[in-house]
Design brief:
The protein is α/β, with parallel strands linked by helices and about 500 residues long. It has 18 helices and 11 strands. The N and C termini lie far apart (about 90 Å).
């Protein structure tokens, strides 16, 4: 009442619940509410008459005020109170308010304030200890209690505590016996850069529209899934050293519309010829064998045009349990109606920006790859700034550059610009390279030192066969890199 502006200071937060105890009179709550309302009317100093006049308009509250000798109480309070003691009284009030809230929520508060103690000396000792505590001390006490319970019962895969030396010798022995690589990727240079396709990794490849994101991913998934491919140069079938359990999730193209690309990749027969039905007898034989190879594979396709994170996770779990899938390609991340509905339900209708929605979905994929011990590769579109960038990175991601935060490897796939081709001309002259028609800007890599670099490639879009050419720094300086051949299965 002496200084109502205290209610407006950020370090003080008083609410009506601070003055109310279940089963007791609402007398103090009514007084606080009156002071608060008068202050809201820009009254700088509040006296007894103002309180009495304000409450007289409210019959029930005014009766409680008078039944408790409100004017006499306020007169005594005004005489006995001093502004210099406000902080002490405020903190004491908030401590009791906090304890009531904890007790109402089922917490045992006896170790901090035992209301059952009646022996004077014991009560005095308890009060002295209580006075030494701050609100934060009390919060820390209950927080530690909850933390210990969580530690005993939580199965959150994100949490792991070990000593730094834990099983270190065993780890070194393991690396000696089996170097830290995943299965082979579609190219041996990428095997070196990323240590192959490792389980529990999440790859993000972003590209402009019409570059062929889906078909590139589909070719990689096919390469993982099948154990034989037709060598177009040597005109013979070769062992592919793969045959992994693979899932491709398409969000825009139905499964049967993807089959021609898959068969073209396996057989080396151009996709257009397959679709036109304009194949030779020899090509028909290759396609028949390609079908046989597919039939013995464990390669699955899901078409999910309207998806949310729960549906995607359920589908992944289903294929893990039923088909032992470990390698997953999710076509590409974009906003869907179901995703918006899922977020709206989770946030109780609160509107979120596009970048936040996309990041939440990417975060869910990140949790899945760790929880289920799987390899996940996905993609996004890029924004319009890619046309003006020389060294592409997460800043050109469409929707949210934060998507890259959760990825273990990040690539921007672009068509080489005129400047690119001019800059690598000296390298092309020294080797027997086809003209690169795609360049991977590798901006993130948790596995090796190879990042902030460019992998130059040539893709035969008729069959989606990829040929790695060479690796350069962002300034087009050639990087000497040794390709790594990874064999994960026994030869025939």
């Amino acid at each position: 009442m002496k200084k109502p502006s205290l209610l407006n200071e950020e370090k003080y937060k008083l609410v009506k619940e601070d003055f109310h105890t279940e089963g007791e009179s609402s007398f103090y709550t009514i007084i606080f509410a009156a002071i608060n309302n008068l202050f809201d009317e820009d009254i700088e100093e509040i006296d007894l008459v103002m309180i009495d006049t304000f409450l007289s308009d409210y019959d029930v509250q005014y009766k409680v005020f008078n039944d408790n000798d409100g004017l006499e109480y306020l007169q005594a309070a005004m005489e006995q109170s001093h502004l210099r003691n406000f902080d002490y009284s405020y903190n004491r009030l908030k401590k009791f308010s906090l304890l009531r809230e904890c007790k109402n929520n089922g917490f045992d508060i006896k170790e901090i304030y035992d209301e059952s103690i009646i022996e004077p000396l014991e009560s005095e000792k308890m009060m002295a200890e209580f006075d030494r505590l701050s609100v934060d001390d009390i919060l820390d006490y209950f927080d530690k209690k909850l933390t210990n319970i969580t530690k005993d019962f939580s199965i959150n895969v994100e949490t792991q505590t070990i000593h730094a030396s834990n099983k270190a010798r065993k780890l070194l022995k393991k690396y000696k016996e089996t170097p830290d690589y995943g299965i082979s990727m579609i190219g041996n240079i990428q095997n070196t850069i990323f240590r192959g396709a490792k389980l529990k990794s999440l790859g993000l490849r972003s590209a402009p529209s019409n570059l062929g994101k889906t078909r590139i991913a589909l070719a990689e998934a096919t390469d993982m899934a099948v154990d034989e491919l037709f060598d177009v140069k040597d005109k013979k079938w070769v062992y592919n050293n793969k045959g992994e359990n693979t899932l491709f999730i398409s969000t825009e193209i139905e499964g049967d519309a993807l089959q021609a690309t898959i068969l073209a990749y396996i057989s080396g027969v151009p996709e257009a010829k397959i679709k036109d039905g304009d194949t030779t007898e020899e090509e028909d034989e290759r396609l028949e064998k390609a079908v046989q190879i597919l039939e013995r594979s464990n390669f699955w396709i899901e078409y999910i045009p309207d998806f949310d994170s729960r549906l995607i996770e359920n589908k992944i779990k289903e294929h893990i349990h039923e088909n032992q899938v470990q390698y997953i390609y999710f076509d590409y991340i974009h906003i869907s109606m179901s995703m918006l509905e899922e977020i709206a339900n989770a946030t109780k209708g609160m509107r979120l920006r596009e970048d936040m929605v996309l990041f939440m979905f990417m975060n869910r994929l990140d949790q899945m790859r760790k929880k289920y011990n799987v390899y996940i590769q996905t993609a996004t579109q890029v924004n319009g700034e890619w046309k003006d960038t020389e060294n592409a990175d997460s800043t050109v991601l469409r929707g949210s550059k934060a998507l890259a935060d959760k990825a273990t490897k990040g690539i921007i796939a672009l068509t080489p610009t005129k400047k690119d081709l001019e800059s690598i001309e000296p390298i092309l002259r020294k080797g027997f390279y086809p003209k690169p028609n795609i360049v991977y800007h590798i901006y993130k890599n948790r596995e090796t030192r190879f990042k902030d670099c460019k992998l130059w490639m040539h893709i035969d879009y008729d069959t989606m066969r990829q040929e790695e050419l060479f690796l350069t720094k962002n300034n087009y300086e050639l990087i000497d890199i040794e390709p790594t051949e990874i064999k994960t299965k026994m030869d025939f």
